[in-house]
Write a structure and sequence with these properties.
378 residues, 37% helix, binds flavin-adenine dinucleotide, alpha+beta
């Protein structure tokens, strides 16, 4: 896999060494639509739950309520292993394996970037064949990729946990952001570490922050609404093209046993102080998922209404919508060298653009209503 000029991992075939066996074509989850659709056969029911891990430290380190850690610890305690995403020293996320609670720590927290899967499916298959219980976590299309690799067979020792996915933003956007932040900070290099979901400023009402550690005690916190990268990510302008037409969108598209997300909006139902440290949403799709949740010793999972969950988590129901101005914004970002482009300037253009689009849509709707009204007159 290579990084495309837009900053996403794409397959690339070396024609010099290719032996023409076509295995890559057979295991590509996008090419074999038929097999994928069969695997996506409608599930009988989806259980909506909310909850959090009881250990306050683990809850604080997690993006939401830490249900991922609760599930992973249950699997580790039975001698199983867990596959998930950690941030590399190069500030790019990648998939790896955790054998114990200490190795799980780096997997906690969302990394809002595409993760490098590398050879991890191969290692996972080895673990499955050895009979160990295996938990794999990732975005829904990575679950799809893994199942396609396994020939859509689901061995009983495999548990699949995906996350509610807004879409993944470009690595090129990330490089632009890091470059600009470094210049603004007059720092000699990139930050030592970044957390996309720091809870020092809270979790309720989307109050989390981006935390950058520049070294020598210089730690910077920016509220997510003020952070250029988060604003660009949430504008939907710079997601992978595949995300706008996600093959795994909606509950019907999920291939996992459990989908985890943030229980946004739960503050309307629970006392503020109870949700302040973060609450997870879990949508359980299969018997295997239900069995694992029943075994959890710490967290109590309470039912949450599907309507409330879907209202606050639109990404659970549908793929990200590509804004009208995305093409020109993408051209500007993707054709620029990181050092030439000002992300702040680009973002200033996005905001009035969105306002203009909203006003235009309002005007159109109003004109349509007027037309329909006059057409109905006797
Ligand atoms: C790109 C992306 C978009 C998301 N969009 C939404 C959304 O719109 N709405 C919502 O409610 N939740 C979204 N989430 C999920 C949410 O942020 C939490 O990860 C999830 O709620 C689990 O939180 P937790 O507290 O249970 O555990 P955490 O410890 O926070 O869970 C971390 C889990 O996320 C996985 N993970 C982290 N980064 C990546 C990555 N880059 N690629 C694949 N897997 C990763 C880890 O392997 C681990 O399983 C998104 C996550 C990512 C990575």
């Amino acid at each position: 896999m290579v990084v495309s000029h837009e900053g996403f991992y794409r397959p690339s075939i070396n024609e010099q060494t290719c032996i023409g066996c076509h295995r890559c074509l057979h295991t590509c989850p996008l090419l074999d639509e038929e097999a994928r659709r069969r695997a996506q056969a409608p599930r009988e029911r989806h259980l909506f739950r909310y909850g959090w891990i009881t250990d306050p430290e683990l809850r604080r380190e997690s993006s939401g309520g830490g249900l991922f850690s609760a599930l992973a610890l249950a699997v580790l305690s039975r001698g199983g292993c867990v596959f998930g995403v950690v941030m590399g020293d190069d500030l790019r996320p990648y998939h790896t394996k955790a054998e114990n609670a200490a190795e799980l720590q780096a997997m906690r927290g969302s990394k809002y970037l595409p993760s490098r899967v590398g050879d991890i499916y191969r290692e996972l298959r080895r673990e499955l064949r050895s009979g160990r219980q295996v938990l794999f976590s990732g975005v829904p299309c990575q679950i799809g990729g893994l199942l396609a690799y396994l020939g859509y067979k689901r061995p009983p020792n495999l548990l699949l946990v995906d996350i509610v996915c807004h879409g993944v933003p470009s690595l090129h956007l990330w490089d632009c952001y890091l470059h600009e932040e470094q210049q603004k900070r007059h720092a000699p290099g990139a930050p030592r570490s970044v957390s996309f979901r720091d809870k020092s400023s809270g979790w309720n009402h989307y109050g989390y922050s981006i935390r950058k550690d520049w070294g020598a005690g210089d730690v910077q916190y920016t509220q997510q609404g003020q952070d250029a990268f988060m604003r660009a990510f949430l504008s939907n302008m710079f997601l992978s093209k595949a995300c706008y037409n996600c093959r795994y969108q909606g509950l019907a598209g999920k291939l996992s046993d459990i989908t985890l997300g943030d229980a946004w909006g739960i503050w309307e139902e629970l006392p503020e102080e109870q949700c302040a440290p973060g609450v997870s949403l879990a949508v359980i799709h299969t018997e295997a998922g239900e069995a694992l949740c029943r075994e959890l010793s710490g967290p109590v999972l309470e039912p949450r209404s599907p309507e409330q969950s879907l209202r606050h988590n639109p990404s659970l129901a549908r793929a990200a919508v590509r804004p009208a101005a995305a093409s020109s914004m993408r051209r500007k970002l993707f054709s620029a060298k990181p050092c030439r482009l000002s992300l702040e300037k680009l973002l200033r253009r996005i905001t009035p653009g969105r306002l203009r689009t909203r006003l235009r849509n309002l005007l159109r709707r109003w004109l349509n209503t007027c037309r329909q009204g006059s057409a109905g007159l006797p």
